[in-house]
Amino acid sequence: MISALRSFLRSVAFLLVAAPQCLSAEPGSTLRDVIDRGYLICGVGIGDIGFATQQVDGSWAGFDVDFCRAVATATLADAEAVEFVPLDSLNRLSTLRSGDIDVLFRTTTFNMERDVALGFEFPAITYFDEQRILAHASTKARTLSDLAGHTICANAGTTSILNIRKAIDAQKVDAEILEIASQAGRWRAFFGQECTAVTSDSSDLLIMVAMHGLDEKSLVVLEDVLANEPLSAVVRDGDQQWEQIIRWVVNLLVLAEAEGIYRASPPDVLERLEIPAYRQLGLPEGWARRTVSQVGNYGEIFARNLGSDSNLGLERGLNRLWRDGGLMYALPMKNQ
Fold it and tell me: How far apart are CA 146 and CA 188, in angstroms?
């Protein structure tokens, strides 16, 4: 009798612990919501040059924007079936958690705390970055240790804040940190000399240098690499189907580049993308070919927004394909 009672109590305790988890997103619910409303709601940056910017005519352009369009094409067969929600670093994750967006493509670092403790999933890295420091050349700084007595700007609510504080403490540098909510505000403070250095993802810093047409006589990127910053798509925990959709859509774009399949490839070449439309994934037949034909492959997305076909001219660097010395590696997708 006592043994049976203990067994019963253990069962009740298990159910009480498991109950909150059962209240998370029902598997497949996000895809059903997207299909029912007829468009994807995608979180992106605010004035995030090269990654997400709204044009004068109201349209959106950028590296992250194109990944939103790829997901819309895969799920709805229409790259334009997207509502873009501009988010800053402070409200991006809370907006995703609340269910106000379906997916976040907004220069968000994939780290353990966010993945394990905060209830998010990071299906696919879209950009391998590093945190660096940009300083006015007048500081004559070459490393972080040269910034003693200076003020460094960084965005609040980012991993950049944590990393720069750790670096300052570790190197015992007597520098001040000025936290600013928005990217635009951070750059205004930097160019207005409220701070003589700014720290962020390397791509962010190099884009600003390119936009202003400045060189090492005006600005200098310091030698220090403060952290690895793998930028990833983000979804809510609890909907495995939606997580898998995002993962394999991003992976498809890398695979297409690796196989030499482009946006303008003829139909017979696009047919080589014979990716299974698994019932569990919930995507229609032809989703892969359609996605690449409407959005292009990873290399095309990079080139037109950040690289050689843009006015920014960023190098691919770590984001080259693996065979070219980069980290972009396509997972197998075709039936063997």
Answer: 23
Q: Which of 230, 138, 130 is nearest to 190 (CA)?
A: 138
Contact, 147 vs 174, CB < 8 A? Answer: no
CA angle 312/298/44 to nearest 5° reads: 65
Choose the final residue of a domain: 187, 202, 229: 229
3-state secondary structure (DSSP) of residue 279:
coil
What radius of gyration, in Å, describes the C-alpha atoms of the chain? Answer: 22
In a domain, 181, yes or no: yes
Do residues 142 and 112 both lie within one domain? Answer: no
The number of domains in the chain is 2
Question: What is the Cα–Cα distance from 146 to 152, expressed in whole angstroms?
Answer: 12
Rounded distance between C-alpha atoms, residue 218 and residue 190, angstroms: 13
Q: At what angle do helices 240-258 and 287-295 cross, to 10 degrees?
A: 60
Strands 53-54 and 60-61: antiparallel
User: Checking DSSP bridges between strand 82-86 and strand 40-44, what pairing results, if any?
Assistant: parallel
> What's the one-letter identity of residue 158?
T
pLDDT tens digit string along 289-333? 999 999 999 999 999 999 999 999 999 999 999 999 999 999 999
Same domain, 245 and 317: yes
Are 212 and 246 members of one domain? no
What stretches in the chain show pLDDT beneath 50?
Answer: 1-27
Residue count of the chain, please give it: 336
Residue with tokens 């992106």: 44
Distance CA 20, CA 115 (A): 18
Q: What is the pLDDT of residue 34?
A: 98
| Same domain membership, residue 293 and residue 248 | yes
